[in-house]
Amino acid sequence: MVRPAHLHRLLAALPTLLMLGGVPFANRVEPYVFGLPFLLAWIVGCVVITGPVMALVRVLDRRAERAAGAADDGAHRR
Amino acid sequence: MNPALLIIAAAGALALTLGLLARRGRAMTLEQWTVGGRGFGALFVFLLMAGEIYTTFTFLGGSGWAYGKGGPAFYILCYGTLAFSLSYFLLPAVWRIATRLGLHSQADFFTRRYDSRALGVVVSLVGVTAIVPYLVLQLKGLGIIVSEASYGALPVSPAVWMSVVVLVIYVIVSGVSGSAWTAVVKDVLILAVAVTIGLLLPWRVSGGLGPMFATIARDHPGFLTLPARGMSLSWFISTVLLSALGFYMWPHTFASSYTARSEDVFRKNAVVMPLYQLVLLFVFFTGFAALVRVPGLTGSAADLSLLRICKLEFAPWAVGVIGAAGVLTALVPGSMLLMTACTILAKNVAGTLSPSLDERSIGRLARTLVPAVGIGAALLALHGGSTLVPLLLLGYSFVTQLLPSLLASLPERPRATAPGAMAGILTGVTVVAAVQLSGTTLPKLFPGWPAAITDLNIGVVALALNVVVMLAVSTITRRVRAAA
Lengths: 78, 484
Known about the structure:
The structure holds two protein chains of two kinds. Chain A has one domain (13-77). In chain A, 69% of the residues lie in helices and 0% in strands. Chain A has helices spanning 13-26, 38-77. The model of chain A has no long low-confidence stretch (mean pLDDT 83). By secondary structure, chain B is mainly α. Chain B has a single domain (3-386), classed as Up-down Bundle (Sodium/glucose cotransporter), CATH 1.20.1730.10. The longest helix of chain B is centred in the middle third of the chain and has 51 residues, at 156-206. The relative contact order of chain B is 0.17. Classes of the chains: A mainly alpha, B mainly alpha. At the A-B interface, α1 and α2 of A face α5, α9, α10 and α12 of B.
């Protein structure tokens, strides 16, 4: 399904996997993190990393698109 | 009149004035506004979507569930975040097709992709059915805010009726352009209010976040985590998935993705929106602080917790500002929901069923429907006993049923046929409705089965059946067509 040039898109699943896959292990009160019970802190952590992860995916996407564009140009010239 | 009610009334008046002013400036048709000439950049689409997403549910429902349920309330923080990562891939695909075909509404999308007007009508009806509980939720919230801010002078029932009158007038005088203006005011106000009270209250009540959570963990063991049964892990995960998958399937949210200038708008938003979700954290703090300060509210009274603690801790003018923010968060999305429901009924249902109706009579019909739908929602708000969150979950379990057929329609050649899509949607919606109306639950139906299965959100079960039926019927209809 995912083409090799788009492999980095799998990164986008990371926060979700951590959030939903991690909940069974994070379902506890202690240790408190910045005063938050552990379950809430875990979820907040996953929310906080989502933005930067998606930003990274976007940067890699644009780079892949530019590379694909350049390859197309090359093919045309030949 | 006390200062709190006075400030809230002023906010209502301000919203109406903004609506009137916006109307005088430009005479836009609904179509022009809804898709905005497809020229909106990231910031505007962000505001538009945030305006639709952050409703009185966020404010009162989020704090009410933190107060009444504890750990399970954290699902609200998860599903939006998950939906935003999905939107990075989903919305550009939807946008490309909608722009190429020049579409205006969600129903158009299904009608065109499956070449079936009947499917468009079914999709419209599912959308309206899902909107009703969402609208009821906004009215309940408005009623709670107005009656609480009156310090006992106004009971809930006249407060709900007053709210529905304001909402109907607002929709009729201002149309959608009013929503856009008020949305900006509302977003700034709700952000400021939610963060301020969420930061102040834990300190006032317990001397800090850590002490507050330690107090709750001591007095209510297990409250800050997910229980072993009921709202357990499998409830949590299935509910997050259901809500995230349905997030962009609401008719008004789906269509607002048409407004973007380019695909990159959605990609940028997917980066920014998750951070915005953290507003919910402060809403939770308020609910937990209320649990320490004003314990003992049970059932649907839990939704009162935010205003109850604010009345104890802050002066009436501050309660007025908080209430005003609350009123706007109900009024803006409420008006969008009411308008979307009436436009869909007039244009996509009545307009399709009797093609002789011209643009003007459709517009007149839509405006006539506004008070009728408003009164219906008010009656439901007064007579249904549920808290705010289950109402939203009900809407989500309906609207998510549209996702499988949407995904199947994205490839160049749709993976499902029109009868398949229709059968899938109807199966999913019927399962949700049957369970809802009969009041049964999975644990009651299958008492011996493990909690991991019976705690699943019924919407997810319906979604699975929906997919199976859609694929099976599509295969059969393709074979029949090939044989013919």
